[in-house]
């Protein structure tokens, strides 16, 4: 039985409080106490870090279609950056999925827990990949899945209403997300076919092709759950492969 976590939606970066805007600029730091100077420095650093990481998200979209300055600004205002601890959930069974998630750093997994408490991994998402329970998101129904951080991760989230806004106001995003979802559907279709007709060795080879950087980052238990085999059998396959 998985212990349910309390929801924590605190973003990694938040803007200055509105009261800061009214403070005079002249000789501000000269008159400010040390603690306030440190606080302002930390906020400035967090802002800089967000912009650096945001460039990775913008770069991802630019690989599909080059974005204009106004489209980049919309991304900055519509996406929220979060820092996720290992084993922290961003979706739990019974909740409605409300965000698409882009992974900047780290790795997440989506899985189902059966009536015996066994986990069945459906998808991994590492750097420059997306994850969401699309059925729950689009139908606004409680999810039957979990999305959990396998590693400490940095992610960007966009809410459904903000994504719909991008679709309608900037058709470039509609085209990009359509291609992304079509590619995910192809991956899912191939996986279903592999489960029907492929050997465990063939499924492991496909895993290596789809997730080339994860074979050394994930423990055997996680990969075996994804392949539908035991960790012991996976160890045997890996020893014969390598």
Verbal overview:
- Helix content is 50%, strand content 18%.
- With 242 residues, the protein is of the alpha+beta class.
- The strands form two sheets. A four-stranded antiparallel β-sheet has the order 1-8-3-6.
- α9 (220-227) packs across α10 (231-241).
- The longest helix has 29 residues, at 34-62.
- The chain starts with 17 loop residues before the first helix and ends with a helix.
Query: Strand percentage, roughly?
Result: 15-25%
Q: What is the CATH C-level name of the domain at 18-165?
A: Mainly Beta
Any low-confidence stretches, pLDDT <50, length ≥5? 12-29
What is the number of helices? 10
Strand order of the largest sheet: 1-8-3-6
Shape: globular
- The CATH superfamily of the domain at 18-165 is Jelly Rolls
How far apart are the termini? 36 Å
DSSP helix fraction: 40-55%
According to DSSP, the number of beta strands is: 8
Helices and strands: which structural class?
alpha+beta
Taking Cα atoms only, what radius of gyration do you get, to the nearest Å? Answer: 21 Å
CATH topology assignment of the domain at 18-165: Jelly Rolls
Order of helix and strand elements from N to C terminus: HHHHEEEEEEHEEHHHHH
Mean pLDDT: 86
Main sheet specs? 4 strands, antiparallel
Which CATH architecture of the domain at 18-165 is right? Sandwich
């Amino acid at each position: 039985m998985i212990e349910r976590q309390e929801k924590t939606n605190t973003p990694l970066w938040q803007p200055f409080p509105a009261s800061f805007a009214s403070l005079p600029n002249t000789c501000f730091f000269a008159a400010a106490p040390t603690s306030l100077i440190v606080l302002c420095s930390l906020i400035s650093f967090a802002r800089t870090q967000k912009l650096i990481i945001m460039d990775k998200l913008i770069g991802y979209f630019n690989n599909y279609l080059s974005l204009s300055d106004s489209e980049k600004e919309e991304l900055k205002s519509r996406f929220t950056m979060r820092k996720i601890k290992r084993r922290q959930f961003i979706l739990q069974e019974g909740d409605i999925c409300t965000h698409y998630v882009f992974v900047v750093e780290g790795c997440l997994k989506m899985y189902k827990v059966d009536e015996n408490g066994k986990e069945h991994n459906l998808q991994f998402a590492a750097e420059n990949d997306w994850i969401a329970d699309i059925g729950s998101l689009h139908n606004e129904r409680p999810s039957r899945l979990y999305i959990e951080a396998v590693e400490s991760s940095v992610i960007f989230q966009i809410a459904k209403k903000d994504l719909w806004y991008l679709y309608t106001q900037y058709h470039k995003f509609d085209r990009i997300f359509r291609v992304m979802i079509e590619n995910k559907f192809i991956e899912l279709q191939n996986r279903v076919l592999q489960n029907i007709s492929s050997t465990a060795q063939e499924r492991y080879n496909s895993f290596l092709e789809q997730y080339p950087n994860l074979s050394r980052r994930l423990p055997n238990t996680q990969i075996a759950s994804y392949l539908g085999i035991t960790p012991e059998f996976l160890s045997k396959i890996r020893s014969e492969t390598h």
